């Protein structure tokens, strides 16, 4: 609303603070194209209210999209057209703990598929568990510009991987491992995380930090924020 029509929460806040603002009268994507931002091929977060012209502009610019379905839903900002992002370089994001309780990429993948299928049932054939797994791995790496370094187990790329157990009662029966991973699993099912060949998580324990100390510090900060 702010960029296209000069209305909304930000416009009201500007008015209260006597900040002059003249809406350019185009979509945010077209405005970024006009002022040259898209020439840097940025990673565009959310992209909730994009139309077909915006999708084509993003594609022509070589920019990427970070799809954050759970954050979009929690804040009530709307539903991004995941099925249209398949034409672009894209991956999943959590938008951080500022707007998401659990930064779990498997949960984002599941939310993306479920919300995407509900909003665009005609795209059901394209919105598959295999597509979501790609977007959570290679697709995300490509969107960030790291496709040559990570995103898949391949010669010349660093050893970034996770191992996920699929024998939990909530996952059974497993007819297809990829479907079980995307539709029935979460970060709690991860038993091993390796980054650049180094184990950083195994069997429920983070190996690189003092978890007890970190939890104590988080409780302390939480108490301070509550008191404030």
Describe the fold and architecture.
There is one protein chain. α7 (105-119) crosses α8. 25% of the residues are buried. This protein has 228 residues and is an alpha/beta fold. The model has no long low-confidence stretch (mean pLDDT 95). It contains ten helices and seven strands.
* Neighbour order of strands in the largest sheet: 4-5-6-7
Report the order of strands and helices: HHHEHEHHEHHEHEEEH
Helix fraction bin = 40-55%
Outline: globular
Beginning-to-end CA distance, first to last residue: 33 Å
Number of helices: 10
Major sheet, described briefly? 4 strands, antiparallel
What is the average of the pLDDT values?
Answer: 95
* Number of DSSP-assigned strands: 7
Radius of gyration equals 20 Å
Beta-strand share of residues: 5-15%
Q: Structural class of the secondary elements?
A: alpha/beta
Low-pLDDT regions = none
Write a short abstract of this structure:
This protein is 42% helix and 12% strand.
What distinguishing features does this structure have?
single chain, 228 residues, 4-stranded antiparallel β-sheet, 10 helices
Secondary-structure map with pairings?
Blueprint: H1 2-5, H2 9-16, H3 28-34, E1 43-45, H4 52-61, E2 64-67, H5 69-74, H6 82-85, E3 89-92, H7 105-119, H8 129-144, E4 161-164, H9 177-184, E5 190-195, E6 198-202, E7 205-206, H10 211-227
Parallel strand pairs: 1-2, 2-3
Antiparallel strand pairs: 4-5, 5-6, 6-7
């Amino acid at each position: 609303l702010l960029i296209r029509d000069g209305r909304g929460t930000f416009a009201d806040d500007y008015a209260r603070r006597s900040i002059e603002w003249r809406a350019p009268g185009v979509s945010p994507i077209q405005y970024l194209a006009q002022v040259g931002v898209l020439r840097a091929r940025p990673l565009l977060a959310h992209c909730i209210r994009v139309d077909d012209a915006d999708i084509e502009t993003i594609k022509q610019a070589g920019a990427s999209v970070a799809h954050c379905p759970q954050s979009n839903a929690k804040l009530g900002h709307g539903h991004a057209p995941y099925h249209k992002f398949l034409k672009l370089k894209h991956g999943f994001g959590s938008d951080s703990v500022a707007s998401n309780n659990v930064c779990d990429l498997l949960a984002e993948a599941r939310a993306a598929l479920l919300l995407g299928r509900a909003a665009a049932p005609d795209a059901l054939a394209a919105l598959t568990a295999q597509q979501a797994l790609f977007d959570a791995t290679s697709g995300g790496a490509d969107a960030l510009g790291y496709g040559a370094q990570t995103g898949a187990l391949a010669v010349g790329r660093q050893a970034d991987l996770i191992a996920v157990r699929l024998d939990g009662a909530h996952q059974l029966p497993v007819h297809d491992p990829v479907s079980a991973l995307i539709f029935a699993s979460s970060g709690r099912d991860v038993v091993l995380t390796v980054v650049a060949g180094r184990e950083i998580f195994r069997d429920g324990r983070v190996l690189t930090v003092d978890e007890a100390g970190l939890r104590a510090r988080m409780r302390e900060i939480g108490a301070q924020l509550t008191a404030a």
